[in-house]
Design a protein that fits this description.
Layout: H1 2-32, E1 75-78, H2 79-88, E2 97-100, E3 106-109, H3 111-119, H4 131-134, H5 152-157, H6 181-188, E4 207-210, E5 212-213, H7 214-218, H8 249-259, H9 261-264, H10 297-310, H11 334-347
Antiparallel strand pairs: 1-4, 2-3, 3-5
The structure holds heme C (2 copies).
Amino acid sequence: MIRHFKIWVTTLGLVLAGLILFFAGSLYVGGCSYHNNCVDGGRAQFTHTPIATLIPATLPANALPFPSSSSSDNCTVTAQVLLSAWVSAGFSETQAFNFTDLNNVACEASYTDLQPLFSQSNLWYSGSLACTDCHNAALSKAASAQLDLNSYAGVVAGSHRSPGSTTGVDILGGGDWQASTLNQVLFVTHQMPYGLPANSVPAGGPTILAGLPLAVVNATPEPTPSGEEIARPNTPGGTGSAVDLTGDPVVGKQIYIDNCQMCHGTEGKGDVLNPGTDDGTVPELNPIDSTLVSSDYSTYAYNMDLFIQNGSRPAGVNPSRVMPPWGSQNGLTQQQIADVIAYIINLNK
Ligand code: HEC
Ligand code: HEC
């Protein structure tokens, strides 16, 4: 009985060992056929266009408006209108191109305005990858369709491009937007962005803020104060030697009170009537006419001295008060004029 049992157990053990060997052998033969040089179990090697599958774990909030620098001045436009205007205008990197925005405003933009359509994630639909997550500079391996949408050069060079080569298959239709591959995959067959859920992207692509209204672009800048004509006396004559002297503003204050205040007001604040003139008042000296002001002291003194040396008759039919010629008629010495100039410049600081 015990002997029979031993034989039985031994037989069972041998049968099991045989089964295991047969199973392992059949695995090898099934994978590698009857040769001994097979790698990786001879599993079929798949060749496929790589697709990035790393979806960001946390999706940022939906990305309108963009770029972050955009402002309320920007035009509102769909990706389709922006891209077609750019391609149709000859797809320049630097030249501006025109388009009409959703509010019917005539606008202009340049390449930099549309690059974010390729490189910004979460733009074409909520949670979308950026085109550049798949189409990037890694042409030798990871870049889908061997297309690099990261730069102007890459976009223009096209798809199915060997690394290092600057020419691939044109995706811009040579400037014919309707015929272009870009238009086809985005707006005709709706293949891109690859993996888009059904009905996730509006027909014209996302609406973005880009470019500027032509009215803003062409607005003439405000005339600068430096462009204004500098006020000059209507009496001819040059400056005196006062402009070469150093004035003392403390001394100048008393000279001002004694000789100038009756017409130009306390501390130069004006408000003195001058009937018979176009202005109606004597000009104030504090603040002084901005065209006379200069950051360069000698220019500032020069502008004032022309009036003080030679005097000036204000415009008008019959001026009651006329600026006297202090220098040319020796009403004041050149040093006194230098002092009063220093005082007025001090008042205007
Ligand atoms: C998830 C990866 C992925 C994303 C994101 C993606 N693509 Fe693609 N794209 C592909 C793949 C893969 C192909 C090749 C498809 C094929 O051959 O059938 C392709 C093909 C293309 C082609 C055709 C190239 C050619 O000449 O055959 C264009 C153009 C294109 N994509 C543009 C874009 C644009 C523009 C975006 C963004 C709006 C985008 N793709 C987003 C993976 C992606
Ligand atoms: C009798 C009145 C009178 C007195 C006194 C007088 N001014 Fe004048 N001043 C005028 C009038 C009027 C003008 C405007 C001249 C013009 O517009 O052509 C003027 C113009 C000026 C200007 C040019 C200002 C501008 O904005 O165009 C300066 C500078 C000036 N005066 C300085 C002085 C100084 C300094 C004194 C004293 C030493 C003085 N004035 C005394 C009447 C006077």
